[in-house]
Amino acid sequence: MKFPQLFGKSPGYKRFSYEPRFYDQKAEERREREDRIRQQLAREAGKESIETTDYRTRMSGAFQSARRRSQVSPQTLQSSLIRLGVFLFLTLFLMAFMTWGKVTLYSLLLFIPAYAYFRFKKYS
Full-prediction pTM beyond 0.85? Predict the structure, then answer.
């Protein structure tokens, strides 16, 4: 008795279709040479090929849009500074806790109400 057939479908063979590709080196070289000659004739005629101008405009547009995206906004700068401050505070607190022990926790409990008082004092 086969137990896998009771609980589900038994796995089948993996099949794939393989189509061999042929590379004709002479035809590839001929296409490249023809393209190069067409571009050269277009340059001599005084106009650039369509492909070249398209490529250049897309590249310049990509650089300009990347420059616009890379400018740092004040909100991003402020959030990164807050994140840095929290990380620095946690690191210093951990170092102080490892050095002095529970005294650090008690001083933190005294610091929190003082911070809250001075923080919300200007709003009331």
Answer: no
